[in-house]
Each structure stands twice: as structure tokens, then as C-alpha cells.
Amino acid sequence: MSAVEPLGTCPPHNPLGHTVELGRDRPIRLDCGIEMAPVTVAYQTYGRLNADKTNAILLCHALTGDHYVADPHPITGKPGWWIDLVGPGKVFDTDRYFLICSNVLGGCMGTTGPRDINPATGKPWGQTFPVITIGDMVRVQARLVEYLGIDDLFCVIGGSMGGMQVLEWAASYPDKVFSAIPIATAARHSAQNIAFHEVGRQAIIADPDWMGGNYQEAGLRPHRGLAVARMAAHITYLSETALHRKFGRNLQDRDQVSYGFGADFQVESYLRHQGSTFVDRFDANSYLYITRAMDYFDLAAERDGVLANAFKGTRTRFCVVSFSSDWLFPTPESRAVVHALNAVAANVSFVEVQSDKGHDAFLLDEPEFHATLTGFLEGAAEHRGLRRKGNSQP
Amino acid sequence: MMVIANGNLRVDLKLIADMVEPGSRVLDVGCSDGSLLSWLGRHKNVDGRGIELSMSGVSAAVSQGLSVIQGDADTDLKDYPTGAFDTVILSQTLQATYAPRDVLANMLRIGRRAIVSFPNFGHWRVRVGLALGGRMPVTDTLAYEWYDTPNIHFCTIRDFLVLCRDLGITVEKGIALDREGRVLPFDGQGVLANLLADQGLFVLSRS
């Protein structure tokens, strides 16, 4: 091990998270060809790394998520996105596992992204930030794991874009991933998904306050465009059934329609709220860059168009999960991953959870989903030789 | 009613389990809640995988740490590479597949050996029921009315043996079972089995 990045001891949980600067002596080469250094990574940990360093789980967050998995969000104050799953005795048992989650490259919650200052120019990166990929995000995560002194991960898990990172990890670092749980995801972004993202990006770009991406220097924020992007995207995260159950055609604070374009319907009011709260915590350029990374993701394309090639010889244990009412990453996308894994005789479990909550189901209270995760992790832990707390037997 | 053997395994499944080599790679097609795979993992250190159609079965299996995918024999066997498993098991499922011939052929492509069990439609009660009663038989082992049965491709033991011959499959062993899954004292491939066995259990291999 060269002395480029000193191996850190794994820091304990801090509600505000941690940051580390990586790559100063060994730049990180991005898919677009640019070498980036240094890269600041904001991350969070839960639980304790065991002596053998065999109990580390990497959680990969989704498009607009961050590393505040089970802590109150520092800006919104809302509970973490998987707070129900993290803690003693929970799905990710912090008495047993060491959890790591980092803000992705290009993000806006502490990891280097377009909002940060480009050291070469002294100005915010803005649109001069390199176009990044899911592979680049994973490359940075791999550096973080290396920095923490962990040779291989017990599990890599994530939903949606987080699931793409899981698949990328399994394909690019097969020896570092003992088990992988890609949830509500796909091995490539579909035309429909790219189309929805393009609507969101064009809403941002059409906002005059975007200023060609240089809004920071002008002291502006394209909040209207970003809010519309969030509204359009939010619809894709829900199912028709879930929307109807929540709002139906109910009116908002009124007995009859107003014959105008105010938020007559509850669903309109809800979406406007979603849009307006989102802009407080998310950067518009980050949204452009991260959606682009998802659009570019196609695990098979880089491997002669054969998805199975991505997993050839894999020894990773996989658990693929989809949700029946998810139309953004529908079950056939997960099934394609399962078929590719079968084609290389990989060790794979696959569950389509029955849920009417749409794509967002992976963030919600779904007992069958949680039972699946617990059972799979339990089985993997047994094969990994991880001991239960208070149990002297492996 | 199926008889439960010790270790909570159905008698017919225990019979199958006894034929599996320790430490081998096994695919259980139509594995239900994974009880056979679980037993094989615990007692024979088998590297087991399963395919199951029902969500409840898949959830139960994965929740106990087994490697099981939601899928079915008709669509999901073709993906596996040739020779991926030592033994492929199909217990009480052949008659519910859309293309039993392709399923059998695929099983013996991806596995060195196959173990197949199915209800025998040649059993005398079935014959009598149809001949004298004039109605499609509903028995303990075939407990569905014709309109709601998942079993769409019934066969007799003889039919099955003819198909194996046509496919060039070697029948290494044939066992006749009663309705509780207990072994009957005659050859599983003979005339008696076709008349008196409620189920047939066969070990097959590539010729």
C-alpha cells in the first residue's frame, strides 16, 4: 500500500456525517477521460466495523437522496430515508453490521459536485463540471471504502439509482462484493426513463434564472425550473392507485372548483409542495448531472451488448427485488438482470413484492420487502461466518 | 394428506433428498417454500437454488436465506448454462407446465441428472372414475375440479416413460409411490406401477 491516502480508522457515527478528501496524490479517472483530484466525499457511518472487517454494508442512495440514511436531514429536519431499516435489531442491525453511505459524486450534500469551487479557476464548477457516470460514482465509493481500510464489502445495497450503483459494483469489483441487493432498478435506463429526465432538465434549462448554469455567480437559483422537474419526477415515483388513494379528486381548502389555475385539487397542492421544498435542499446543476449519469447507464452496452458478460464468473450472492406497481423500473427490468445472472449460474434470489405504492415502495413500510431483506442478509451472514451478537458460535 | 418425515420434510421429498449427493449443486424447480432446499443445505451441504411461481413461496424461501427466484419452469430454465447443476429436481410440477417436453429437455441440459415426480393419471381410481363415473377425477392427489386445476398436462407413468425414450433420456431408477408418498413394493416402470401408483418418482440422466 503506497502512502497516497492514509488508511483511516472507521469513524463512529456522527449525526452530521464525515468528510474526507480523496485522490490528491492519485487522481480519479472518470469515464469521460478527465482525471479528477481532489474529490471531497461526504459520508455517514452506523454501527462498528468488526475486527475481521467482514461486516461492512455500503448503502447507495437514490437520485435525490444523500448520506443521511437514519439521521434528521440537516436542511429539512426530516427523518432519514431508511430510518425504519437502520438500528439495533432492525433490518440493518447496527449491533451487527457496519453501515457506510456516501453522497454521490456530483451531489450537493458535501461530495464534490457542480456547486463546489473548481480549484483550477476559483469559481463554481457549474456547467464546467465533467459529465459523470454511475461508474464514476462507484469509483469514488470504492476509493472511500479503500480509505476506510475495508478490503471487501459484506453487502452493497440500494434502490433505483442506488440499485444501478449496486449492479455497477458487482460488475466492476466482483471480488469486493460478497452480496448485492439491487432494488427497484435496471441494468440500463429505458427510453421512457430518459424521456422523463429530459422533461425535468428542460424545465431547469428553460428557467431564465438558470443563466446557462452560472446562476450561483449571479446570486440566483432556478427554483421554478427545478420545482417543475421535481413535480414531474415525483409523479413517476407513485402509482396511479397510490395517487388516487391519497388524493382522489378531492379539492384543496375549497368546496368547489375556482374556474382558475390555482391549486384546486389536493394532488396539485401536494405536487407544488413537493417541488417547493425540494429546491431548498437540492442544486439544479446537480440534478442535471445526476439524471444524465442515470441516462448513460447501460451495463450491457459496455460488454458487447450481453448483460450476462457483466457477471461472468461472479461469486457474489444476489438478491434482486422489484415492486409490482413500479412503472418507472418495472419488474421485467429486474427479471432481465435475473436472467443474466442465471446465464452465468450466479447465486441469485429474486422477489417481486406485491405493493400498490409504485416505485417509492422501497422507501416505505413494506413488511414483506423488509422480511426478504432480513432473510437474505441472514443467509449471507451465515455464509460469511458473521456471528450474531452475544452468540459465540459463528 | 402428505406424511411428514422426521426433520419436517414430506416423505416424498425425503425420498428425493436421499438421492442427492452431499456437496452437490442442486436446482429445485417449483421449490414451494424451499423446505427441500433448506433440508439439503442443512443436512447435505448442498449448494441449492430454487425457482418458484408463487410469491408466498418465494418470500418464505428467501426470508429463510435460500437462493430462490420468482419464475417458472417454462420460461426460466432456458437461461441457465449447460451443465450448471449436478441435479435438477422437479417435484409434483411437470403436469402444471405449459411445455413439459421442453422442460424435461432443459432439465437434462442444465443438469447432469434430473429427479422428477408427478401424479400418475393411469392410477386405477382415475381410470374407474372416468370410465364409470363419466366425470373428470378429483382425488386426494388430484384435488381440483377440471375448471380450476393448475394441472394442464396430465400423463400416466407409461406416457412419461415413452416421452423419456423419445427424448433419448436414460431412466436410471423408477419408484412407485402411494398417495402419502410411501414407496410401493414393485418396479416404478412396470404395468403394476401404472395401475397402482398414485405418484411416480424417476431419476433421469442424459444418454
From TrEMBL, chain A:
**Which residues are recorded as binding substrate?**
230, 360
Instruction: Tell me its EC number(s), please.
Output: 2.3.1.31
Query: What's the domain of life for this entry?
Result: Bacteria
Q: In which pathway does it act?
A: Amino-acid biosynthesis; L-methionine biosynthesis via de novo pathway; O-acetyl-L-homoserine from L-homoserine: step 1/1
Question: Which catalysed reactions does the entry list for this protein?
Answer: L-homoserine + acetyl-CoA = O-acetyl-L-homoserine + CoA
A GO biological process of this protein is: homoserine metabolic process
Q: Which UniProt keywords apply?
A: Acyltransferase, Amino-acid biosynthesis, Cytoplasm, Methionine biosynthesis, Transferase
**Pfam families associated with the record:** Abhydrolase_1
Q: Where in the cell is it found?
A: Cytoplasm
A molecular function GO annotation: homoserine O-acetyltransferase activity
> In the UniProt entry, which residues are flagged as the active site?
160 (nucleophile), 326, 359
The secretion signal range is none
Say if the entry is tagged with keyword Acyltransferase. yes
- Residue ranges of the AB hydrolase-1 domain? 55-364
One CC-aspect GO term: cytoplasm
Record function comment? Transfers an acetyl group from acetyl-CoA to L-homoserine, forming acetyl-L-homoserine.
| Protein family (similarity comment) | Belongs to the AB hydrolase superfamily. MetX family.
Quaternary assembly: Homodimer.
> Could you tell me what this protein is called?
Homoserine O-acetyltransferase
Give the source species. Magnetospirillum moscoviense
TrEMBL record, chain B:
InterPro entries xref list: Methionine_synth_MetW, SAM-dependent_MTases_sf
The organism is Magnetospirillum moscoviense
Signal peptide positions on this chain? none
Q: Which NCBIfam families match?
A: metW (TIGR02081)
Tell me the protein's name.
Methionine biosynthesis protein MetW
**What SUPFAM superfamilies does this protein map onto?**
S-adenosyl-L-methionine-dependent methyltransferases
Q: What CDD domains has UniProt attached to this entry?
A: AdoMet_MTases
What does UniProt list as this organism's lineage? Bacteria, Pseudomonadati, Pseudomonadota, Alphaproteobacteria, Rhodospirillales
Pfam families (UniProt xref): MetW (PF07021)
